[in-house]
Each structure stands twice: as C-alpha cells, then as structure tokens.
Amino acid sequence: MTPKISVIIPTYNRWPRVSQAVDSVLRQTWTDFELLLVDDGSTDETLRHLKQNIVDPRVRFFQTANRGVSAARNYGIDKSVGEWVAFLDSDDRWLPEKLEKQMACIKNQPELVWIHGEEIWIRNGVRVNPMKKHKKSAGDIFPQALKLCCVSPSTVMIQRRLFQEVGVFREDFPVCEDYDLWLKISAYHPVGFVEDAVIEKYGGHSDQLSRRYRAMDYWRILSIDTILQKNLDLSKKQLAEKELVKKAKILLKGYRKHANLSEYDQIFYLLRQVVSDI
C-alpha cells in the first residue's frame, strides 16, 4: 500500500546527530509514512551506521554524490511515492504528534496544498525565543515570505502535485533554496499552520550553512527576480519589486563598503530593471 506521507531527511557528515532526527520520525503517532534517508556523499560512514541501527521497514536508504542539500532533497522527492512530502533537517527533531496534527488540520481544510507549524528554537543547548519578525502564520504569507524565510523546512508538508506546478529546490543556490521555494508556492497558494510546536529546531553548530554565507540577500534578490518573471497579480508584483529594491540597495551599500565588486554589477543590473531612474 502506498504511504500517505513521504518523509525526506537529507544528511551530510552528521552521524550520530542524524540518528536523533530519525528516531523522532519513527516515534510519530501518525504511522502511515515512508522515510527516505538521503546521504549526500558523507565521509563519516553515516549510511553504514544508519543501516546497522535501523530495522524499520518504512525506512529506505540512498546515497548520492556530494551535491548539496537541495540536490539531496530533490533526489528524495523523485524517489518518494506519498501524496504528501515532508522534510526534516538532520540536525532538527520532530515532536511526536507533528504529522498527526498536520493531517488533522488538512482534514479540516481539504483545500490546503501545503502546511507548516510552530517551532521550539534551541541554540547551543539553550531554548531561545524567536524575534517578532520570525512569527509564523497561516493564509497568504507572500508579503512575509519576501522579507525572509518564514517557513522552516523541518515543519513543512507539501502536496506532491505542487512540485510539478512550481518546481523543486534550486540546486544552484548554496543557501536560501527554501526561501526560493516558499516564495514560488506562496505567490499562488495560502498555507496552513499548526499553532502548536511541531519541531525542535537546533542551531548554533559550526556546520550550519547560514554561518558560512553572510550576504544571504544576494540569493534572495535572485529569487525575487525569478518570481517577477512569473504571472503575478499586480499587488504581489508591486510588493516583490519594492522588496527587491530595498534588499538591493542595502546589499550594494555593503559591497561598496567592503570593496566586494564581484557581484556588484549583477545586483545593480537587477535593480535598474525595477528602478529606471537610478
């Protein structure tokens, strides 16, 4: 029987941390799922350890060349079979009723095609409170999605057909690949939201990609430029143009200050497309 949900965990050199993520999936009160573990070319024998320690028949193991988290997630999407696709980063953990609460919400709102949920943030072992700008919500989140990544990959669950409609994670983005996908989905579809915490999100460790890439808005600007080429309604197009201009001006100021001109011309060109009188 085809499982209702496909769960995808991409991982790279995170043994034994990934085993805790796996355990949090296998402890779910909703049991109709398959779990795809995609080892993105680890060198710490992650896959061997996982196979030795996991005997659950719902788990499927894959190993790919090291091509990044987007490629690993996309590989999992391609190999999965569930009607819904959920993701879990290998350094996060689901709370036991994560899937059950989200499926209950979908049952009550059958028009939903994607859903996320509240998080508990833990940084360097200490629980922290998210800032106001990180507040999660339901409905039309496109205005918020323009500003920053407003959906955690570890909380989201997406109806499979959406990937045919808007595409998958951009493999040419080393970061902000989630920002890009949420922008493409939220431009056309409201999101469901579970107000209870559904995950524990862990941060502060040295191998987080966000710690290696400081000019995150460079990738966000490229993403906004892409969405502006789509068929957006006028109000959303105006919001996207306004946010591109705001981010581009700040980024260009930083490039000039630090004499980082390698990407300056590209961002200035995108800015000129929106603001012709610069």
First CA to last CA: what distance? 60 Å
Quick one: biggest sheet? 9 strands, mixed
Q: Which segments are poorly predicted (pLDDT under 50) over 5 or more consecutive residues?
A: none
- Structural category is alpha/beta
Order of helices and strands: EHEHEHEEHEEHEHHEHHH
Strand content: 15-25%
Shape: globular
Number of strands: 9
Integer average pLDDT: 93
Compute the gyration radius: what is it? Answer: 19 Å
Q: What proportion of the residues is helical, as a percent range?
A: 25-40%
Question: In words, what does this structure look like?
Answer:
There is one protein chain. By secondary structure, the chain is of the alpha/beta class. It is 40% helix and 19% strand. The protein has ten helices and nine strands. Strands 1, 2, 3, 4, 5, 6, 7, 8 and 9 form a nine-stranded mixed beta sheet that branches. α7 runs parallel beside α8 (216-228), α8 (216-228) packs antiparallel against α9 (234-257) and α9 (234-257) runs antiparallel to α10. The protein is globular, with a radius of gyration of 19 Å. The model has no long low-confidence stretch (mean pLDDT 93).
Provide a short characterization of the protein structure.
With 278 residues, the protein is an alpha/beta fold. The protein is built from 10 helices and 9 strands. Strand 1, helix 1 (17-26) and strand 2 form a beta-alpha-beta unit.
Q: Descriptors for this entry?
A:
single chain, 278 residues, alpha/beta, nine-stranded mixed beta sheet, 10 helices, 40% helix, 19% strand
